[in-house]
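S1.2 Input.
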Amino acid sequence: MTAFTLSYREVISDQTLLENWREITLSTGGTQSTLQDIKVAERANGFCYEDSTKHHTRNRFIYWRINYDVLELVEHSLDVNLTGNRVRYRFIDTPILDGISVHETYENVIVLVPTVCSVHRLIFPHPDRFHRQVRA
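S1.3 Output.
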């Protein structure tokens, strides 16, 4: 009997389409600081929704990338086609620190973004909220 070896393969999606980003520029008005001269490494991470029993949160996740003062947030779903799911935040002359966190509540998804000047709270509607509005 031939032994079966388990292996994984990366599946690359069709990348010929242009990505439509919604771009938001934030001027925090932060004062000049010695921390603004620091070098921050590029970082990336992700978040998946807790309730995987519902079709609108199952196989759905958010990932982000940080490049100096730019934060890119993308939401993907393996079950549903999402539109308007890419947003790019630019914090003018304010490097983003490592430590972005995502918190899920009943109504919202909250993203905390630490920079050298402050912590920013980004609030997005939870997919459950959209689903409840459609059903009502």
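S1.4 Remarks. Residues 22-135 form one domain.
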